[in-house]
């Protein structure tokens, strides 16, 4: 049986152990507090989710080369919340979300319900339109809706819209 791939923190640790001069950016599907904190604790200089677009990855690489950190904006909020020991500053709590929506998907759904376009959502969340489309595709699949109109109805029905 083949071993599962390493987690972001395991991969970052291995890279730092074998090549300490290498600046590591984790690119992963996981954005939970533990995964982020562990990857950064073992030396990753950046943390992006798999929804990051090519432009976001390029900017992260450039930032890390300059000696800066590069953290996905959604991850930044989780990181600050984890360090502060408090609840998320805005948006619905993950435990209260229906259909296994992530907090970011719920946030995108809320913005759709407010009538924002994909470009406006991307600007608001500081991500690419491709990332927004990815979130929309995921939330459509999870909620079983076919279009934005059904998504808005879903958002109101589940108290995700103001």
Question: What would you note in describing this structure?
Answer:
There is one protein chain. The chain has 162 residues and is mainly alpha-helical. It folds into 2 domains: 77 residues, Rossmann fold; 64 residues, Arc Repressor Mutant, subunit A (Orthogonal Bundle), CATH 1.10.10. Helices cover 54% and strands 8% of the residues. The protein is built from 8 helices and 3 strands; from the N terminus they run H-E-H-E-H-E-H-H-H-H-H. Strands 1-2-3 form a 3-stranded parallel beta sheet. Strand 1, helix 2 and strand 2 form a beta-alpha-beta unit. Helix 5 crosses helix 7, helix 5 crosses helix 8 and helix 6 packs across helix 7. The protein is elongated and about 50 Å long. The N and C termini lie far apart (49 Å).
Task: Give the topology.
Blueprint: H1 8-18, E1 24-28, H2 33-41, E2 44-49, H3 54-65, E3 70-71, H4 73-84, H5 103-113, H6 118-125, H7 129-143, H8 148-157
Parallel strand pairs: 1-2, 2-3
Shape: elongated
Name the CATH architecture of the largest domain.
Answer: 3-Layer(aba) Sandwich
Q: How many beta strands in the DSSP annotation? A: 3
- Derived from helix and strand composition plus strand pairing, the structural class reads mainly alpha
Q: Poorly predicted ranges (pLDDT <50, ≥5 residues)?
A: 87-93
Give the tally of structural domains: 2
Q: Give the mean pLDDT.
A: 82
Explain briefly what this protein structure is.
The protein is mostly helical and 162 residues long. Helix content is 54%, strand content 8%.
Feature tags:
54% helix, elongated, mainly alpha, 2 domains, single chain, 162 residues, Rossmann fold, three-stranded parallel sheet, Arc Repressor Mutant, subunit A
